[in-house]
Design a protein that fits this description.
Chain A: It holds the Pfam family TBCC_N. The complex is a heterodimer of chains A (about 350) and B (about 180). Chain A contains 8 helices and 14 strands. With about 350 residues, chain A is α/β, with parallel strands linked by helices. In chain A, strands 1, 2, 3, 4, 5, 6, 7, 8, 9, 10, 12 and 13 form a 12-stranded parallel β-sheet that branches. Chain B has a 6-stranded mixed β-sheet, with helices on both faces. Chain B has about 180 residues and is α/β, with parallel strands linked by helices. Classes of the chains: A alpha/beta (about 350), B alpha/beta (about 180).
């Protein structure tokens, strides 16, 4: 009778022999069930890591194939003068890059954010090298159709500024259109090291744009109003600028201090920089880190008038309302901070 | 009758047009939309995400989708491609350094099948800034002539700051779309 107590309730107590078989069968069944359950439980996370892995494999594969295509294109066309244009091939590469981008976007929901970021970085690198190869490989005459349908296509035109004649020349460098090639059209300071660069914008002239690019260890003082301001590739510089009543675009800066007033400010790829701003709208950062913000603190003779003219005489407090496009969450972005008050510079006077 | 055909019917009745505004960041997309709608343009933050505006224009209702142009969010543009009647590509004519980027992104966009039927208006914006390129020059740099002959396109110089050129551009776009989808008018 004791035996039957130990047996599971559904096993009918009968002869000792059949009881034992039943018990064995039952135990086997329980085990099967629990195995099944476990495999079901395990399946889900497994498939997720599997698909991440398979995504990464696919990603790496296409990345390698794109890279090899690019290097082949650049080699074949540099070794001999290309008789047939490499353009279709380059277009293929562009298509594969965008397919890859699509793949990342589609898989982004299951990828850890780190992977998404590295993948996006890889894609932008690929695009960059495609651009490089394209500008090296495509024959320069590409841009020489100029008499077709021009009048029909433009229905508004202002006389081009005198300097831009150079752009119209069929210069060999034109298709590349990098900063060096067309950049000279706009006024600015470029490629200087350890200098103090000063410019005062005369109110009698029409106010335009100004560019700073490829500066190292310089101090830049710009007085007067500007319409648009572009900054690119600055290292260890100090930049003091009067009011800009349009937008400011800053890219690739490191170890710099900026004192700026403007209607819109966009900051891309900045590392370890301090910005003293007055902005009418919310400043934004993208792909930046270690950037700190404080209020505008520039003085020169006549700045009040300039600020008023540019509609920037009021402090809006927006210097502290920074949007980080790489950090779309409610918690504070780790990429930027408000400058602690005792780290801030005093009022800057320039003359 | 499927949902899609019902929507199409309603759309036809209300003479609605769906217009997608894209372009690099800092090109002035939001300013253009606000200016054409007669709104204040003095305080505009860079667009995080998108804005939708419905504007009555002539006898049509323009449904304008203004999508942010920052690099981080460009990959989301494709979420807005469906059912687009008109595409507005905005160029900052004073940003010479990034014209290459601009060209790349535009041609990338035009490869998209879902946009193949859309009329394309290119705004060469910021013509009021001294030193900006003219629409002709922009057309050359962007290689617009090489564009697929089957696409209806046009480049118009404008200034969202002064408002110049905006109506000309939208007039063309709306007429072009209307002649395609409301042939009976």
């Amino acid at each position: 009778m004791e035996d039957s107590h130990l047996a599971p309730p559904d096993s009918t107590p009968s002869a000792a022999g059949s009881d034992a078989t039943l018990q064995r069968k039952h135990a086997a069944m329980l085990e099967r069930l629990s195995n099944l359950h476990q495999s079901r439980v395990a399946q889900k996370p497994n498939s997720e890591t599997d698909s991440i892995q398979s995504f990464l494999n696919r990603f790496t594969e296409s990345k390698l194939s794109i890279e090899s295509q690019l290097s082949r294109i650049s080699q074949t066309s540099s070794s001999s003068y290309p008789s047939n244009s490499p353009k279709p091939e380059l277009e293929n590469v562009a298509v594969s890059i965008s397919t890859l981008e699509k793949l990342v976007a589609e898989s982004s929901y299951l990828l850890p954010s780190y992977e998404v970021r590295t993948c996006l970085k890889t894609i932008s690198d690929l695009k960059q090298s495609l651009d490089d190869v394209t500008s090296r490989v495509i024959p320069k005459k590409k841009f020489s159709f100029k008499n077709k349908k021009k009048a029909a296509s433009a229905i508004y035109s202002i006389p081009p500024p005198p300097q831009s004649d150079v752009v119209n020349e069929e210069s060999d460098e034109l298709p590349k259109l990098g900063s060096e090639n067309v950049g000279f059209v706009s006024p600015g300071f470029r490629a200087k090291e350890n200098e103090v660069l000063v410019k005062e914008f005369n109110r009698d002239f029409e106010i335009g744009e100004f560019t700073l690019s490829d500066l190292k260890g310089c101090e830049v003082r710009l007085k007067g109003c500007l319409r648009a301001f572009f900054v690119n590739k600055l290292k260890d510089c100090k930049v003091f600028v009067g009011p800009v009543f349009g937008s400011v675009l800053i890219e690739e800066v490191e170890g710099c201090v900026f004192v700026l007033a403007s209607h819109q400010i966009r900051i891309h790829n900045a590392k370890k920089c301090d910005f003293y701003l007055r902005v009418r709208s919310r400043p934004i950062i993208e792909d930046s880190n270690g950037v700190r913000f404080g209020p505008y603190c520039l003085r020169y003779d006549g700045i009040e008038k300039d600020l008023e003219e540019a509609n920037l005489s009021e402090e809006t407090g927006n210097w502290a309302n920074v949007d980080d496009f790489r950090w779309l969450r409610a918690v504070q972005s780790p990429n930027w901070s408000v400058l602690p008050e005792n780290d801030r510079v005093e009022m800057v006077h320039i003359s | 009758m499927g949902l899609l055909s019902i929507i199409r019917k309603i759309k036809r009745k209300e003479k609605e047009m769906r217009i997608l505004m894209v372009g690099l960041d800092n090109s002035g997309k939001t300013t253009i939309v606000l200016k054409i709608n007669g709104e204040d343009t003095s305080v505009i933050s860079p667009t995080l995400g998108f804005n939708i505006k419905t504007i009555a224009y002539q006898k049509y209702a323009l449904n304008i989708w203004d999508v942010g142009g920052q690099k981080t969010i460009r990959s989301y543009w494709r979420n807005y491609f469906e059912q687009t009647d008109g595409l507005v590509w905005v160029v900052d004519s004073s940003d010479l350094r990034r014209l290459d980027d601009c060209k790349y992104e535009l041609h990338n966009l035009l490869k998209e099948e879902r946009l193949s039927g859309a009329s394309l208006l290119i705004f060469a914006n910021k013509q009021d800034i001294q030193g900006s390129l003219s629409p002709d020059e922009i057309a050359k740099v962007l290689n617009l002539e090489a564009m697929d002959k089957s696409r209806h396109w046009r480049i118009v110089g404008c200034s969202a700051y002064t408002g110049e050129g905006l109506l000309e551009g939208f007039d063309w776009l709306v007429q072009d779309i209307a002649s395609r989808i409301y042939m009976l008018d």
